[in-house]
Amino acid sequence: MSDLIESVRPDALPPALVLIAEDEAEIADILAAYLQRSGLRTQHATDGHEALAMHRALKPDLVLLDVQMPRADGWKVLSEIRSSSDTPVIMLTALDQDIDKLMGLRLGADDYVGKPFNPAEVVARVEAVLRRTRSRAPVATQMLRVGAFQVDLENHEASVQRDGQQHALELTLTEFKLLACLMRTPKRAFSRAELLINCLPEGDSQERTVDSHISKLRKKLEALGIQGVPASVWGVGYRFGNEP
Hints:
Layout: H1 2-7, E1 17-21, H2 25-37, E2 41-45, H3 48-58, E3 62-66, H4 74-84, E4 89-93, H5 98-107, E5 111-114, H6 119-136, E6 143-146, E7 149-152, E8 157-162, E9 165-169, H7 173-184, E10 190-191, H8 192-199, H9 208-222, E11 231-233, E12 237-239
Helix pairs in contact: 2-6, 3-4, 7-9
């Protein structure tokens, strides 16, 4: 953990989330292990329909997309993703033919890897694509929406809808960062160390300081009748919690 704390600035982007859309569990597990070892977060979809649902819900930074998947193949998934999003997509396929590569690129794929592949090479390709796309789309241009909550990262404004009205949240910078971090992946449990690194000022070094800021954030939300946000995760830390 000490190496992670030294290498990540508190105001840096959170680790990129990679959605692995692959129906072969062994391949998905290998890719996830290599990606996580490189500091990336992963989620796994086992078929095309699940991949689209997880893409809509999680808004990953990149999708590793297998062509031959049940329920909806990779071409269909890629087409659906491109109809509403510019999320980077790297195609994974056993079909090592130029026509398939051309189809993927025409549909908007960012890269193409044929099976069998070297997982380390896949990680290198993922990191290269992320460097390009994340530099083009800084966090400040994003708008986060989860349930009734809305966070404008460019203008540092947060609000929540209650009883048909949008209520502005008067948050400190640290409270704002905590809320935004939890909203990025609302189902994920973050440790105090992760929140300390990503959300608190550089001078703060105590994990328990996170508890104080979370408590103050909760009280502001409770004043609007919102309970359980952020939610405590016993033995881990916090997740976004219940949606009002």
